[in-house]
Amino acid sequence: MTDTTHKQDELRKFFKTQLDELLEMSDEEILEGSDPEVLKIEGMAMIAAAKAKIGGRRMAAAKAAMANRKVSTSPIISAVNIDDARAYLQAAANDSRITIAARSLGEMSDADIIRMYTQLNKLQQDISGSK
Asked: Per its UniProt entry, which superkingdom is the organism in (predicted)?
């Protein structure tokens, strides 16, 4: 352990010395033999490539998240007859295992009936699937 600590200290001193030398050098000494405009263009190109790569990764992640959201929020039953859904909910209202809000099915819109039917159906499938 002491040997590792000693090596780390030596490495730290070496890097500090290198940094100090770089900080003391003038821009001309650092760029000796290089064209600053070419270096600037190359640097900008590297930054643009990195941004494009990161943007591509973000886009792929966003597309994957959207695909997952579509799968998880898509209705289990895509085409439901409204009369069948009403009958199903009426039968469910008489089931002691299920509690449905005290609201007449006749007062509910078709969209609410389909939504409630889909939720109840998914709940029952989840319960039967977990057994």
From this structure: Bacteria
Alpha-carbon distance of 10 to 13, in angstroms, equals: 5
Task: Report which of residues 119 and 101 the model is more confident about.
Answer: 119
- Extract the tokens encoding 79: 């085409």
Residue 79's pLDDT is what? 75
Decide: residue 117, CB within 10 A, 0-12 exposed, 13-18 middle, 19+ buried.
Answer: buried
In which residue are the tokens 């039953």 written? 77
pLDDT, greater one: 85 or 96: 85
DSSP string, 58-126: HHHHHHHHHHHHHHHHS-SSSS--HHHHHHHHHHHHT-TT----S--GGGS-HHHHHHHHHHHHHHHHH
Q: What's the CA gap between 83 and 114, in Å, rounded?
A: 10
Asked if residues 93 and 115 have their Cβ atoms less than 8 Å apart, the reply is no
Instruction: Name the token pair of 11.
Output: 């490495």
d(CA 85, CA 96): 19
